Each structure stands twice: as structure tokens, then as C-alpha cells.
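Schema walk-through. Below, the input block comes first and the output block second. Nothing else is stored per chain. Lengths vary across the set, and this one has 309 residues.
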Amino acid sequence: MAVKEMTPHDADSLLEVEQTFGDRLRYLGRLLWRDKSGMIGLLMFLTVVFAAVFAPVVSTYPPLEQNLRDSKQPPAWYAEGSWDHPFGTDNLGRDIYSRVIYGARVSLTVGFFGVMIAGTLGLLIGSIAGFSGGRTDSTIMGVINLILALPYLLFVVFIAAILGRSLINVILIFGITDSPIFARVTRGEVLRMRQSGYVESAIAAGAKTPRIIFDHIMPNLIGPLITLATFEMSAMIFYEAGLGFLGLSVPPSVPSWGNMLAAGRGYLTTAPWLSPFPGLALVWTAVGLNLLGDWLRDVLDPRLRRSRK
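--- output ---
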């Protein structure tokens, strides 16, 4: 099979695409630099990602290592504290700082993969409903509205209590139960884009429905869905901590912020330092993601950019 040689024209076109992509990255970098809250949110989130990825290097002790002689040791700035355990130790002598670092892995894993599952399902369901219309749209949206009408946290707690404590179960629960939100947003955007000129031109040219959806509609859904995914990831991290606090998330042996909050609840008077640190890590991550999501919403939605000019 002969291989087609690249002509000078093809090389120039490829270079132009690369320059355009580089220009876009520089443009986004300038926008991020101008938006200080977005920059702060990105840095806050990146610190959590860095801690999760390099947890064995950043932490000082294995998260499950117990030393009952050092149990309930206060943080380093207390008179009885030690810098060997900067955040102190829990009732089993485990280093709280190391457990907070490793807890970031659970939260980010649940948030990332939960959003990936929810976004994929919601994108497919919402695209079919919005583009098909008619009875198909009415049936799909009826089911989605029914699910959204249920109290979300109670619904999640009910399913988690049935399936049992497992990281995979938690990811699947959030991924499936959160997909109606993505489906609803996708359907609204598809309905709006169906009236656009480029979609009507594709229909007039005889393009088939799958090609119109994948080539003309889905690329324009990336911006709104990325913004939504940022906020939903923050919400999933909170919900996972809530399930962990109720004893319905990962097993007790797995270091997670929700499990640490639940374990520290019984020592609020005798060892009050057990709960604040996982709680602060949870707030830090959520604030960083929300600030980053606000910036992404402003950047990826041209209507908001025009209104701010």
C-alpha cells in the first residue's frame, strides 16, 4: 500500500493548525492570569492533585501505621505536640497529616471517575432526546425529571446502603445518579443548536443523524459540559465525604476525609484536632474547584464574555 507523501501545502496547513492551537493556549493563559480568582482556584486544586499523586513522597508515615503509645497526640504547635506528627495522631496513633494526604486520592478518584461516567451517559442521553424530539424526547425527559424530583442525598444513601461499602460502588452510584443533570443540560444545548445554521445546512445536505450529532453538535457541547463537570466534581467530593461520615462509603481501613470526620466525632472534647484537618482539606478542594469552575464558565461561554466587555 503506497504511502502518500506530505506536500508543502499539507505541511503549511499542519503548521497553521499547531500555531492556532498554541495561540489558543496562550490566549487562555492570558485570560487565566487576568482572572485572579480563577488563578487562585487552579493553584488550590493543583495542590490537592499534587498531594494525591505524590502521596508516598509528601506524607511522613504510612496512612495505616499504628502506634498506640502516640495515640491522640496533639498537633505540633501544642505544648505536648511534636513535629514528627504535625497534625497530631488519632485514637489509634495514626498520623493525621499522612491520612489527610492519602484521603485526597479517594476524593479525587470518586470525583473524577464519577463525573466521567455521569458526563458520558448524560451526553448520550441528552443528545438523543434533544435531537430526536417528539415522543422519544418526552419519554426520556419524563424519566429524567422523575429522578431529579427525588431527594438526591437520600436517594444516594438508600442505594449505597443496599450495595455496600466499596470505592467502585460509590463511583458507580454517583456516576449514574448524577447523569440526569448532564442529560438535561445537554438536551437544552442540543435544542438550541438544532436551530443553528450549520446544523440546518448539514440536514439539507443529507447528513445522517449520527454524523450530525458527533461532528456538528458534540464539539460545541464541550464548553458547557466541562464547566458543569467542574462544579459536579466538587459536589461529588462533598457527597462522598457525607457517605463516609455515615459509614456508607469506602471501608474504614481506607483513609478518606469522610471516614476521618466520622472517627473524630467521638473525640470532639478530648481530642478536638481529629476532625478539623480533613474538614479543611474538603473545604480547600471544593473552594478551588468552584473558583476554577467560575473562570471556565466565563471563558467557555462566549455570551458571558460579550456581556463582561
